[in-house]
Amino acid sequence: MFFSKVFVLVLSYSCLWVLVFGRISLLRLDENYIPNLKPYSELNMLDTEQPHSILPRTRPKRNEDHIISDCLYMTSEEGNFFYKSLNNEETVCGIYMFTEPDQRIEIHFNYFDVPCEIGGLVAFIDGWEMNGEIFPSKMDDSRPMRQRFAEFCGEKKIKQIFVSSQNVAFLQYRIPGPGKGFSFTTRFIKNPAPCNIFLQDEEDVITLRNYGNRTNCSVSAMFPAEIHILALSVGVVPTTGRRYSFETGSLYKCKKRGLSDYVEIGGSSGLDNSNLYLADSVCGMDSKPAKFSEMIGCGTTTVRLVSSGIFDNSVTVALRRLDEERISNGFFSVLCPMEENKK
Q: Is a pLDDT exceeding 50 seen at residue 33?
């Protein structure tokens, strides 16, 4: 399904605390890295009267041109993008890109004039960053941060084509020079084995698989949500040898039991979901799980599939944003602390 303006509303109301106190910054991505790009201003999405980059559900033409005029710019479109600095302000700005769960984002720079001598810099991040927190977190992407971003400046042709590992990508830039800027083209390509997914829709059904690998995969959404497991096969079917299996039903507290493969359901206050407030951890084989749902009262809701590589795992979940009535009822499986939300 295609994305709509509803994502803007979700971000504006459900994650107000992130946007009011949030900023985009590379400062905290790697403690051992000394960045050239520093945060110069607080960014507030609510300052944008009309986030025109989020358009209706029609698929745009690939040759459509987009002028980047907002410091905090969000887009789910393919096409050509242009940015030109209008002043000498040393403001750090960002371009948040997202597409469908089973797609990746390819970025190719067509024009680049960002002088190093005036402090200009552009950085590509494989994922999203906000408030010094990044998605996917280190729990779900084990690569060092140096391998997940690249920064560059000067007047040159950038030959490298950047491809995200998941359905979100982020460009950050600081260009304190009138008339200087850059242009790039994005296109969405098929992801044959999606692992980490940033969900934009208020309601969706997602299947996570490890494809027999030792890895973590997750789906996250920036709003409180109801999680219902529709199908479960975790820690039962071996990746090698005889693949006979039988239904065990849903087993709970699997992480506490010391099992190697399980599904975590929980939430976090910010974008970083590496340390979840857990509602439960589930494993087993169950084609018809119970109708019981987990209510996650956090700014970010996450389902994570943890896999040792010994088993061929999969889990299908239905995720739906909690409406005001359900939130007002006050019943949550897990509730993130309010004081953390105010950081």
A: no
